[in-house]
Design goal:
With 157 residues, this protein is of the alpha/beta class. The chain has a single domain, classed as Rossmann fold. The chain is 38% helix and 18% strand. Helix 1 packs parallel to helix 2 and helix 4 packs parallel to helix 5. The longest helix has 16 residues. The chain is globular and about 35 Å long. The N and C termini lie far apart (54 Å). Pfam families: SulA. This is Cell division protein. Keywords: Cell cycle, Cell division. InterPro entries: Cell_div_suppressor_SulA, P-loop_NTPase.
Length: 157
């Protein structure tokens, strides 16, 4: 009996395969005005070791930093491990990323809403923890006004 040879190819990890398949719907398809505001806000919860969370986050951020949209990918109050060096090591397009830290009277939520409303970012990623209903509404409204996407990431939940 003769078996046909299957060409070898590199194997993606489970998460990379999932992300490669699903990220196109998040980063490259513009929202239509008729679509629900709830689609402008996404949330993701990552738990486990810091290293594992970074491994899961890197391909998402890389994809968003290379989005066809010419606007910024904005990171609001990212964890201290997400430095310019980390972005470089993980192949992110640092020329398309803004890293913003809240200062003075502006908290992370205010900063995220301003970044979303400005229209200068295609996606604003924040690390705000668990969101209540009022905060979700603020982020959705700001994202709609700026024709942007909002992604909140919860770590260690």
């Amino acid at each position: 009996m003769q078996y046909q040879s299957i060409p070898s190819r590199s194997q993606l990890s489970l998460f990379e395969g999932f992300l490669a398949h699903n990220m196109a719907s998040f980063s490259t398809l513009p929202l239509k005005d008729s679509e629900s505001e709830s689609e402008r806000l996404s949330e993701m919860s990552l738990s486990g070791s810091s290293t594992h969370c970074q491994l899961l986050l890197a391909p998402i951020l890389r994809d968003l930093s290379e989005a066809a949209d010419s606007r910024w990918l904005t990171l609001i109050a990212p964890p201290s491990v997400l430095t310019q060096e980390w972005l470089k090591e993980n192949g992110l397009n640092r020329e398309r990323i803004l890293l913003l830290q809240p200062r003075g009277t502006h908290n992370a939520l205010d900063l995220a809403c301003k970044a979303l409303m400005s229209g200068c970012s295609h996606t604003v990623i924040s690390w705000l923890g668990k969101l209540d209903g009022a905060t979700r509404q603020k982020l959705r409204a700001a994202a709609r006004r700026g024709s942007a996407q909002s992604l909140n990431i919860r770590l260690g939940c």
